[in-house]
Amino acid sequence: MKYTPLYPVHEExxxxxxxxAGWALPLQFSGALAEHVxxxxxVGVFDCSHMGEFLVNGPRAIEALGSLTVAxxxxxxxxxxxxxxxxxxxxxxxxDMVVLRLDETRLFVVTNAGPLDxxxxxxxxxxxxxxxxxxxxxxxxxxxxSREVLLGLGCETIRSLAYWTGSETTCLGTAxxxxxxxxxxxxxxxxxxxxxxxxxxxxRLLEDPRVAACGLAARDTLRVEMSYPLSGQDFxxxxxxxxxxxxxxxHWDHVFxxxxxxxxxxxxxxxxxxxPVVSLDRRSPRHGFDLQVGDRPVGVxxxxxxxxxxxxxxxxxxxxxxVAISGTRLKAGPRSLELEVVAPPAYRKGTCRMNxxxxxxxP
Amino acid sequence: MNPESLKxxxxxxxxxxxxxxxxxxxxxxxxxxxxDITYVELPAIGRKLARGEEAAIVESVxxxxxxxxxxxxxxxxVNYTLENDPGLINRDPFGRGWIFKLKDINxxxxxxxxxxxxxxxxxxxxx
Lengths: 363, 127
What we know:
- The complex is a heterodimer.
- Chain A is globular, with a radius of gyration of 20 Å.
- Helices cover 21% and strands 33% of the residues of chain A.
- In chain A, the strands form four sheets. In chain A, strands 11-12-13-10-4-14 form a six-stranded mixed sheet, with helices on both faces. Chain A has a six-stranded antiparallel beta barrel with strand order 15-18-17-16-19-20. Chain A has a five-stranded antiparallel sheet with strand order 6-7-8-5-9, covered by helices on one side.
- Chain A is α+β, with helices and mostly antiparallel strands.
- In chain A, helix 2 crosses helix 7.
- Chain A contains nine helices and 20 strands.
- Chain B is 25% helix and 34% strand.
- The model of chain B has no long low-confidence stretch (mean pLDDT 96).
- At the A-B interface, helix 2 and helix 7 of A face strand 4 of B.
């Protein structure tokens, strides 16, 4: 089992700990539902130190990494983030990643814990790529009041960060990288810190009464409500980005693995779709539930849970293209739970895209 | 209800008797394992249950679990409050979080259920 630098603090707080991709991580502190609401209404902090981070140095490395993903990485402007997918030879997804362009010559790449060994092997084989995972702690500060909380701690550089941008800065007395994003749907920031500062920063954040520690259970209900897919669960090596609902992140005008096949699929429309589904009451769809229309099998639920902010079950499903239309009713699982296909995101009141500069202008 | 005066099944249901009516719920150990409960499906009133039969379903953020009839009997009352507030089971598993009530139970089966002390030992073995 691997431990993050914050593990002793979680244990002290009485967190329920689980094994997630070989890491001992907090499942919950006070309870999944309370933590979910905490993030939607105030601020939650998450320990994401298990995730992978890489520094990509130089135009050759940027170009090389770009050719393994669906994104136009050389064309990414400094200060901007992009969500993309790292592909195997056939165009299947090894992992999804967030890429921040630090400046003209460097990218900062954030990946998941599950396939990290494989991802590290591929990335560090490229010229000029450094694996920073072991020396980097990651704390996500998520919720509508996250900006005020960080500004209150003197973290001024976040003041002007727009959605999906980031920078290198000093925050809470330590050099760090910050992106405005996260996987909850709320206004939020991801702090990438030297491991030896993690406990101090975590505790400083939690001194604020508006902040509470949150675990993986809430992280899951928050991301499923937002219809964000999870690497290794909603997609994997057998899934192309098209089939993972990532069409809008595909930059078609560059060479990447599986491109021809994906162009054919795109043009014929003949590929499986990843779509959000909701139930009509409090019952939850679950991972692995088969889906039917009448007696016809049309797909499978890939993620499913209760959506506390929706008040119904919610999930993601891989379905045949003919039923990937909002309003389609599906029967799911052994008890024929009724689900409805909806447009993403299933939850629409998230504050993640909030224009914070308007907030400053307000009286 | 006072947990010490209840009887327990090895599926983590509790049964409490008062005036010939047997109240059934799930234990604190069970609700703790399940995590936040989000949905409860109650049995129909009048339904005759055999011991071990699926009587109710409790869904949490994590998973769905069956609640089994700890003894054979007839459902005479169900806790409708749980339909809108399933979290009552987390907050008060031995009290307001009760799930259903049985009458005409099989007394021999009731006698076979665990006492509080036996159940506590049973849980220690499971965790």
